[in-house]
Design brief:
The complex is a heterodimer. By secondary structure, chain A is an alpha/beta fold. Helices cover 36% and strands 19% of the residues of chain A. Chain A folds into two domains: 181 residues, Rossmann fold (3-Layer(aba) Sandwich); 127 residues, Rossmann fold (3-Layer(aba) Sandwich). In chain A, helix 7 links the parallel strand 6 and strand 7. Chain B folds into two domains: 311 residues, Rossmann fold (3-Layer(aba) Sandwich), CATH 3.40.50; 31 residues, no CATH class. In chain B, strands 1-2-3-7-6 form a five-stranded parallel sheet, with helices on both faces. Classes of the chains: A alpha/beta, B alpha/beta. At the A-B interface, helix 3, helix 4 and helix 5 of A face helix 6 and helix 7 of B.
Amino acid sequence: MSKITLLEAVNMALQYELQRDSNMVLLGEDIGLNGGVFRATANLQSEFGPTRVMDTPLAESMIAGVAIGMAVQGLHPVAEIQFMGFIYAAMEQIVGHAARLRNRTCGRLSCPLVIRAPFGGGIHAPEHHSESTETLFAHIPGLRVVIPSSPKRAYGLLLAAIRNPDPVIFLEPKRIYRAVKHTIANDGHALPLDSCFTLREGRDITLVTWGAQVMETLEAAEVLAHKGVKAEVIDVATLKPLDMKTIYSSVAYTGRCIIIHEAARSFGAGAEIAANLAEHALQDLKAPVVRVCGYDTVMPLLRNEHYYLPSSRDIVTAAEKLVSFN
Amino acid sequence: MIFNPLNNDMTSATELHSKRQYDTYPLDSKQLIAAYKVMRLTRLFDHKCIALQRTGQIGTYPSCEGAEAIGVGTAQAMRSDDVFVPYYRDQAAQIVRGVQLEEMLLYWGGDERGSDFKGPRQDMPNCIPISTQCTHACGIASAFKIRHQKRVSVCSLGDGATSKGDFAEALNLAAVWQLPVVFVINSNQWAISVPRHRQCAAKQLIDKATAAGFTGVQVDGNNFGAVVTTVAAAIARARAGKGPGLIECLSYRLSDHTTADDASRYRQKRELEQARQQDPLTQLSAQLRARGEWNDSLEAELNAHCHRHIDRAVANYQNTPIRSAESMFEHLYAERPAQLDWQFARIKTQELNDE
């Protein structure tokens, strides 16, 4: 066992499952010899051959459509879309077909596929390479949206996503691809989907987040602890279907909740969580539910992206204000 | 020059047919009669569906009048373990594939069970978003190839669908990966109100295969023999690992786009009347009669048989109880996530209150 990054954990999970499941195939742009632009699929083609690890022509809608055809036939394709900013060409296939195939054939056909895409800002990437538009997928019935935020959860959740019999959009926070290293046993152990992970316990305030913002939030919780505020940190992990139960039971203790996401504020997943709290947990709330989010603007180019991204400081400020609310 | 199959200045579909001498293919009378019977059944079923829509018994329905030779020819050229990837005007092919008439009625009547085919379990359901089925056909063919199965996926689409990127992306991949897939275009000259020459400036849609690096074939889509032999040849090639096929079947949409459309708003009556002269059913029946294999009494017998079959299907459709309200949750996921439990419970209550 060695310490590995989130990116290496993705690679390890893919490698493990390719070995275990002879129906699993990988497809995408530059994923073969090149091992993907981030190297998530490094060495997999040389190990499993070009029939299992396939470089495709450059067409995102085609990649999704072909993955659907493969999945219908019982293969377990894991398709890579190079950046989330290019996934929109595949939206028609994902929304119009993958999400509804099981339902529209009454279970005769199904679509056990995973579409992986790196998302989010903070790596000084070019235009169209930094957005967080997970809400677009979370709105679609029939899909699962899974977002890991650590090497351990990347490994366990990706295995679970591949083994899941329905389509999963697996969004990888590229900003923390190499941020931390975890010691992970390569034992093929999957983590549960559809469940939040409580990363830190605290009775004063609940901080709900996902993706790269988990790092900022954990940092904020540490700062808050020094100031005497005990924050509970929840990593949503599966955005759809959303495990509100874990959030309700935390808020039942804390009575205060901040939702942190990189995605633009309006109609973001934070609004869904806040609305659920208002509908079902109003009596537990001691203060308004607050969101710390990206602005309702186009993601700025790299020089100014730090102004857009929520920081641990923003979270601390919002939390301090919220604990003093009466 | 504008392409018009009815304009003699251009190579007409009929000329193409005679040029390629399809009649020399060994099509025995038995196969032709079998084809004619399904084509007639399709035509009569189609008319019944329009009547059912007009009387409020099914929803919007896309007629397949004029596409019968293409559908039956395509499906007869397939093996049962091949996979058909249809669009929404493929009733003829689906009947040959074993989709039940009452399943089609259920689908157009608004019931998901209509796509739970009891016959061809692996065939794809009707594809409504134009051209998006083309890449599914590639994925299915890719699965066959990966598993070393000698199976072929056959994808059907209209001429309008060739304008979409999905079609180009699918042809491109099919050729690069040498996939066992055959694309069959029902080039019926109209994509709702847009005529063929406003859809694409290329004289032949098969030129798009050339761009992808393989050769397509244009055939007379009103001639069953031409369709079945051409599609069979392409399927045999694909099955032998020689790569994809593209067949452009020149035909004419004898109907409105769907029952929600009125083609008289944009289409000349004269053009339609001319096209009716090339009705695929009339042509095949004439061919059979010329061989002494068909006559009025056989035709009457066939019609009576078809009507009985259709009436039975309509009765079965009408006697099928409507699905429960909560059925919308049943196949959303393999297992209903606990998060949906309260919505599921709510709709059950709602259903009880409605009763």
